[in-house]
Specification:
The complex is a heterodimer of chains A (113) and B (114). Chain A is an all-beta fold and 113 residues long. Chain A contains no helices and 11 strands. In chain A, strand 4 and strand 5 form a beta hairpin. In chain A, 39% of the residues are buried. Helices cover 0% and strands 53% of the residues of chain B. In chain B, strands 2, 4, 5, 9, 10 and 11 form a 6-stranded mixed beta sheet that branches. Chain B has a 5-stranded antiparallel beta sheet with strand order 1-3-8-7-6, with no helix packed on it. Classes of the chains: A mainly beta (113), B mainly beta (114).
């Protein structure tokens, strides 16, 4: 089944404890992206990757890192999580580039205390 | 500054009636527009899109209308069904841009009641 998977789906952690949210797609898509969804703010892009060689910041990159070592995986790294990073996170991928239809993962609910 | 705006946070419609969700944009370079639907505890799913060379696109019960001069698009759902209850996001892109990204609105919660 063609899909974007994220792990974990739910995570509760403490301030400052490094964490990684994994994202993997099995559709051979070049483009991948991370978003966060907060009440009243919609979907805001954190980072995106046009392909394995190109990664760039979105609207809200502060406090996040990404890595794109292979086409199928695009992990989101929080080196020192803070409570304002409590949010719902979505990974997405696209076969035609970021300006076209993107296919989203199921989401990761992160709580930082 | 938000480039894609959905000014109605919520909409309530009776089953069988038409649902009209609205979206406005400010960037005249946007040439591709999409609607996504999101259920609780799931990721957004692509619903329908329209290119700026068209003013209407239909897919079953869903129709998107684009008014370029007004920088406005709308999603019509006819007839509305309880299963349509979800958050709907409008998105837009400038396909000629090297940035390659979608700009999302803040979403409209649609509730369809029996």
């Amino acid at each position: 089944e063609a899909q974007v998977t994220q792990n974990p789906r739910y995570l509760i952690t403490v301030t400052g404890k490094k964490l990684t949210v994994t994202c993997s797609q099995n559709m051979n898509h070049e483009y991948m992206s991370w978003y966060r969804q907060d009440p009243g703010l919609g979907l805001r892009q954190i980072y995106y990757s046009m392909n394995v060689e190109v990664t760039d910041k979105g609207d809200v990159p502060e406090g996040y890192k990404v890595s794109r070592k292979e086409k199928r995986n695009f992990p989101l790294i929080l080196e020192s999580p803070s409570p304002n990073q409590t949010s719902l996170y979505f990974c997405a991928s696209s076969p035609r580039g970021g300006g076209y239809e993107q296919y989203f993962g199921p989401g990761t609910r992160l709580t930082v205390t | 500054d938000q480039q894609v705006k959905q000014n109605s946070p919520s909409l309530s419609v009776q089953e069988g009636r038409i649902s009209i969700l609205n979206c406005d944009y400010t960037n005249s370079m946007f040439d591709y527009f999409l609607w996504y639907k999101k259920y609780p505890a799931e990721g957004p799913t692509f619903l329908i899109s329209i290119s700026s060379i068209k003013d209407k696109n239909e897919d079953g019960r869903f129709t998107v209308f684009l008014n370029k001069s007004a920088k406005h698009l709308s999603l019509h759902i006819v007839p509305s069904q309880p299963g349509d209850s979800a958050v709907y996001f409008c998105a837009a892109s400038d396909r000629g841009s090297t940035l390659g990204r979608l700009y999302f609105g803040r979403g409209t919660q649609l509730t369809v009641w029996p």
